[in-house]
Amino acid sequence: MNTADNVVEMRSISKGFNGVSVLKDVSFDVRKGEVHALAGGNGAGKSTLMKILQGVYQADAGEILIGGKPVAINSIQDAKSAGIGMVFQEFSLVPSLTVAQNIFLAAEPLGAGGLIDDRASERRAKEVFAEMEVDVDPHAEVSRLGTAYWQLTEIAKALSQNAQVLIMDEPTASLARHESEALFELIDRLKQRGISIIYISHRMDEVYRLADRITILRDGRRLLTEPLTGVTPEQIVEGIVGKKIEGQLAYRERDHVAHEGAPLLEVRGLNAGPRVRDISFAIRPGEILGLAGLMGSGRTELARALFGIDRRDSGEILIRGEKINLSSPQQAIDAGVALIPEDRRAQGLVLDHSVQDNLLLPLLGQIQRGPLLDSAKGKELSSSLIKKFAVKVAHPHRPVRLLSGGNQQKVVIAKWLGTDPDILILDEPTAGVDIGTKSEILDMIRDLANSGKAVIVISSEYPELLAVSDRVLVLKDGSVIRDIPRSEIADEEYLQLAVQGV
Amino acid sequence: MSNANTITPRDTAAPRNFGTMLKELDWRRYVIYIGFVVVFIFFAILLRDQGFLSPQNLLNIFRQTATITVIAVGMTYVISCAEIDLSVGSVAGLSSVCTAMALSQWGLVPGILAGLAVGLVVGSINGALVSLLGIPSFLVTLGMLGIAAGVAQWITASAPQPILNDTFNMLFGSGDFGPVPGLVVWSAIFVAIGAVVLNRTKFGRQVLATGGNRNAAEFTGINTKRIKFQVLLISGTVASVAGMLYAGRLQSGRFQWGSGDELSAIAAVILGGTSLFGGFGSIIGTLFGALLIGLINNGLILAGLDSSQQQVVRGAIIILAVALARKK
User: B236 CA to chain A: closest CA distance, Å?
Assistant: First the structure.
């Protein structure tokens, strides 16, 4: 291989945080005009590697060569001037400025008297968009545009700074299907112009559609770098999954599952927005239903629709056999539904408030005496919840912020279980939780089902999904593509392939 | 270019006709101009016999709103950067006092420099506390409001400081430049510079970017801490000039000058369409916001309402205007 073809070459990169090694001796290179897919499970080191290339982190060891010459990338500015452009997933544009103003932010063309010439930026933005062969109005204010346009604006911004390499991290996660297709065609055109793309994605069909080569990272090491023509989807999945299911996360048969009898929750032909399309399923008391799917497949959106946050366009939701109109979370709570949201820090907890106050928030009605709150009763109730769910806390009056991720998650679950719901939806219940607490939370979920509740678990971590679910629904593009009983799922690879729709 | 690769335009229509342009026009952003015209016409008809439309009265409106306009120009920078400055009113008061005292002691130029120094010092302290220590500007400037007002009252022992220097009084507020009152010229200069800098310079664009999305601004290489420092410095300095305009117009320095102006200035900025959450600012809007407040004050006086009634009506109009300008 001729190294001169490599626009970027990262040699033997190592990086650790607080003594924990995250990248070990990883080499990675990108050729001119190629799409190089980067894959790996959670914590494999993909994002750390890319952050080193972007100048957010500095490597502990190893070197980076751009166009064959060693360079020091110590800041985002260094990366930019070396021709590395990043297409962020979101939130990297200023919504109140126009498309053109964003593209040339901090690099505005100046006209007479050193004043900013917005017309010149609009003209130049138009040229960039024309080269990209897309139609975006440079004068439009970004806040009024959809996600696809944000992305195009970001790409244009990188190209206007003469980026030779674009890093795209799950770029289709928030795009509709036709928008993704347009993005793929744009990537093809950029390739022809000699621009290289590092494409991070979990979607096998996209990787095969776009990429020339793939690099798989596992546990901070490079597992392989191969042309895609030489690897099968099975090999890639095996490479990403790697280790077998750990003992703690093994599936345990439970005999409480009612296979007969009336469903507690039934959904018929539910449509809600673009990502919940014609979904039907039923769940019985004591059953744990796993929802699997890639990012953007509509799992979270389905949960939101069931909890009355997103409006239902059509279809029916039946609880205990009765049709019910869920148009607000309050109605859902009254009907016995609880949602434990994905982002506990933003949606589940008031971080600066005490553990006790957080626990009691949905239960204030229960501890009221006249117009006042009965603090003795509240103390009693909260300490019983803390005990029941084994929350490790020095004192109920300590702020939740000080707890570990796992204990915070227990507080969120305990908080909602205080309302005694019959139907419980958990969105990524173990995200950012250590392995010990993880198995405690999974036990908690099993106990809840054993006590006759219906539980829906959404998770991107297949081992844990397989550990608790009695049945797995596989979602893709907002529709259910498979409904598989747990007993038919042999291993994680089987589920991975089902999710990919291979 | 094939058709398949253009993403369906949802918000950006390539061919524009007048109808779609009208529909796309964000009229909420222009509510201040509509409101200004409506109130103006209303008073012009209602108060036609009280001399509302006389050139003398119209110039009076400009003159009375000049100091608020000047303060509000600086405030527009602070608010569109998603910060707030509550200390501007008392900075104006302190500056009027320091100018008057230095003027009687050492003469014209030291007097002006003393006034400006008040703004530079207070603005720098505000800016440093906000950008370096990360204390919310609301708290920093709330504290500074008390400190500046207290210092002004303390060093003068609550007594007005007369200014006998005619040149100063002529320059700052009492005099005319040709046929135009000096105060009108001052506010025109501040509005013009303020508008050009905010809309057409790198600094202005960086202020808006910092207010609109601080993370994005950082990633683009903007030093957002420096920007936050600078907007508070500008606001303090501009407020000190407003204090000298009070001193020149009223030919004295006094700790009460400017007290409460922070609220009028914030109202003018918000009425003018600047977002309280940062990211969007309009100096011309601010000018009209200040003029609208002045217009209402003037009209209500001519209509014979007393000051307590004026406050009620003014408050109601401000809430109404902001409610109309609100996004859906």
Answer: 25
